[in-house]
Amino acid sequence: MIVSLAEMAPGQTGIVISLEGGHGMMRRLAAMGIRRGAAVTKTSSQPFRGPISVQVGNTEVALGFGLARRVMVEVPG
């Protein structure tokens, strides 16, 4: 099943399959370790379109809701 980071449940893990944005956004996400093929785990999210925390490898990063909506992830299920 393919969902965005924003739609994942906390604790759910998946593989990044696409980034829907421009080169600047892709560079910014790549600097955080979020790129195609990377395993990500959503650790928490805030209500009402707040920031979303994800773990990539040994690093935990926070993304805004709009940016998280553009990261498409394949999750088991």
Structure overview:
With 77 residues, the protein is an alpha+beta fold. It is 17% helix and 40% strand. The termini are close together. The mean pLDDT is 93.
Order of helices and strands: EEHEEEHE
Helix content: 10-25%
CATH topology title: SH3 type barrels
Q: What low-confidence regions span 5 or more consecutive residues with pLDDT below 50?
A: none
Structural class: alpha+beta
Number of continuous helical runs? 2
Average residue pLDDT: 93
Question: In the CATH classification, which architecture applies?
Answer: Roll
Order of strands across the widest beta sheet? Answer: 1-6-2-3-4-5
Relative strand content: 35-45%
**Domains counted in the coordinates: how many?**
1
The largest sheet, given as strand count, sense and whether it forms a barrel, is: 6 strands, antiparallel
